Amino acid sequence: MTKLGEYLHTRSINKSEVSRKTGLSKPRLSELTINPTAKLRVEELYLVALAISVDPGELLKYVCEGVTLVNQK
What we know:
Elements: H1 3-10, H2 15-22, H3 26-34, H4 42-51, H5 56-63
């Protein structure tokens, strides 16, 4: 499961409703929540944040938790 998948799961968010509100296909949303190699585009993250009524910055911070600069490790 991806960080986006964890976020939606822990908040009991219905992915079908997110798909409907965002216009993202159900297969694409499933890929973004299950496949760790899937690349989440910023526009997709923004739409998901709007659909679930959270600050896009909060969702970005959660999804990118642990990402650091090369020299910052």
